[in-house]
Amino acid sequence: MNVLEVKDLKKYYKVKTTFGKSALVKALDGVSFSATEKKTLGIVGESGCGKSTLAKALMRLEVPTSGDLSLAGRGVENFERSEYQSKIQMIFQDPYSSINPRKKAWQIIAEPLMINTELSKAECKARACEMMNTVGLRPELANRYPHMFSGGQRQRIGIARALIQKPEIVICDEPVSALDVSIQAQVLNLLMKLQDEMGLTYLFISHDLSVVKHISDEIMVMYLGKIVEYGSREEVFLNPKHPYTKALIKASPSLDQGLGKHVPLEGELPSPINPPSGCAFHKRCPVATDRCSTEVPTLEMKHGRMISCLEVE
Ligand SMILES: Nc1ncnc2c1ncn2[C@@H]1O[C@H](COP(=O)(O)OP(=O)(O)OP(=O)(O)O)[C@@H](O)[C@H]1O
Ligand SMILES: [Mg+2]
Questions:
Q1: What distance in angstroms lies between residue 127's CA and the mean position of ligand 2's atoms?
Q2: What CATH number labels 2-307?
Q3: Residue-range domain boundaries for the chain
Q4: Left (φ > 0), alpha (ψ -120 to 50) or beta: where does 248 sit?
Q5: Index of the ligand 1 atom closest to the CA of residue 50
Q6: Exposed site from 36, 112, 156, 254, fewest CB < 10 Å?
Q7: Ligand 1 contacts CB of residue 13 (under 6 A)
Q8: What whole-number distance in Å separates Cα of residue 223 and Cα of residue 48?
Q9: For residue 299, how many other CB atoms are within 10 A of its CB?
Q10: For 171-212, how does the pLDDT look when each residue is reduced to its tens digit (9 = 90+)?
């Protein structure tokens, strides 16, 4: 079942250019997908392609320019904020900047309950301690402040806070990128265990393709605010068809086996203020032809996945 459905989502930011003129940044430019219950949808793409903007729009932290969002078939505009927040939650990249340093661990974890429910303070604290246990933190540490925890433990506080209301969907925006490599695997294993136990649906955003490959059932590859390839993990990562997906995989040191040598991705991501004509990837694309500079590809089903490329038949 689709727990989350996104249709033609756009988010344009108005910005001032160097000469004081106003311009539009098309951070999201017509994104459509759905997330399947209890599965993980991995979202990848270079810095600036719109991943966090998508996360913020889904969390309703940003108002989209246009498009439809629905949870289990119900349009998000029909939800009260508190009800919506009880269903969809987010885990942030930097556990330190996303939590209040002046609050005790249990207060940070219990805050959504205090805001969105009528539960007593004692009940909120009891539930926070229970949740600390679930995420592998000793409840005796409930009265400690964030600076007294390690980076990995702080991320566990962030996870406990996101899960305290037992949401259905959790958006993880680079949840392990700020952690030491040795800690990353522990936190990923915890996230997978919690998914199993609580029946969570994840949207998992990461730069690190090896992490996404490990954790995802489906993968969505974004380029300049658009989806370029989207399908099962097997199709997209083991049999990539889009030149951009291939380039990303080749550029990822731990994933390039079988596809040749580690080759850094050439060229820079173009400015989203003035994206290239035709296919936005054509200037960096090894297989682009003349028509790629004029014709805009559409996302279509080809070879068992959705793909937006004129050169893939
Ligand atoms: N509040 C804003 N005002 C103007 N432009 C913005 C704003 N937020 C994001 N952008 C622009 O939108 C585009 C997408 O940004 P976003 O943060 O979603 O990228 P990202 O894929 O999350 O990148 P990263 O991997 O670095 O986190 C970028 O060009 C960014 O500069
Ligand atoms: Mg981001």
A1: 31
A2: 3.40.50.300
A3: 2-307
A4: alpha
A5: 18
A6: 254
A7: yes
A8: 9
A9: 18
A10: 999 999 989 988 999 999 999 999 999 999 999 999 888 899
